[in-house]
């Protein structure tokens, strides 16, 4: 494998980025779920996953 072929794994998935972009716009989990056509539980799971992965980086 060539060096320039190497792609580092992104810190956040596309969906996690979408959730957090809406979160920083001060939207509620209910509003985010509605905007992204997912359940509130899924929104909370994305937030939790990011917080958990952030702790692993420390």
From TrEMBL:
InterPro entries: Sig_transdc_resp-reg_C-effctor, Tscrpt_reg_LuxR_C, WH-like_DNA-bd_sf. Keywords: DNA-binding, Transcription, Transcription regulation. SUPFAM superfamilies: C-terminal effector domain of the bipartite response regulators. Residues 5-58 form the HTH luxR-type domain. SMART domains: HTH_LUXR. It holds the Pfam family GerE. PROSITE patterns: HTH_LUXR_2 (PS50043). The keyword DNA damage does not apply. The keyword Transcription applies. It comes from the Bacteria. This is LuxR C-terminal-related transcriptional regulator. It comes from Bacillus songklensis.
